Amino acid sequence: GQSLEQPSEVTAVEGAIVQINCTYQTSGFYGLSWYQQHDGGAPTFLSYNALDGLEETGRFSSFLSRSDSYGYLLLQELQMKDSASYFCAPRQLTFGSGTQLTVLP
Amino acid sequence: DAGVIQSPRHEVTEMGQEVTLRCKPISGHDYLFWYRQTMMRGLELLIYFNNNVPIDDSGMPEDRFSAKMPNASFSTLKIQPSEPRDSAVYFCASSQQGPTEQFFGPGTRLTVL
Hints:
The complex is a heterodimer. Chain A is mainly beta. Chain A is built from no helices and ten strands.
């Protein structure tokens, strides 16, 4: 079958580092994408991992291990504006309910 | 580029009425996706097109839902007849390279009374 798991909520303080994990099970896999969605807004693309390893884009990094069917999004130097929902999306799967990140002052 | 354009932004209708949502993808994007988002079910892929051809409609909930893409710059999602459980935000997205990097429209908030 197919499944997708992320924590429903994560809370951290401004300036901290937070990691949002994603595990998946799918019959076909072509890479892992991450999206950010602020309340009332549309999802916006953050990153994509086609191969194993770490991809860095500014304060955000994304990691993939295909053998473990696992990935994570790492957010550094958290800012208040990072408070949002974060979705991992293995190709061919729904985005699910995502992880609600709350950044506290 | 104006990005993905969706209309209307808000729609309130009564149960049993027909609803048509519209989407204009980013020019040059060959893929178009329709999603539905609710608190209970999260963000669900309904259907996607490649070069105006439906590729995967397995997410379309039932026969009341239909989607068309008559040309590269326009798509519709129709619900007939609508039901209260169809109330959700419907997003359209487009991309150049399949599902990996999608650009979402602002969404249509549908309320069925």
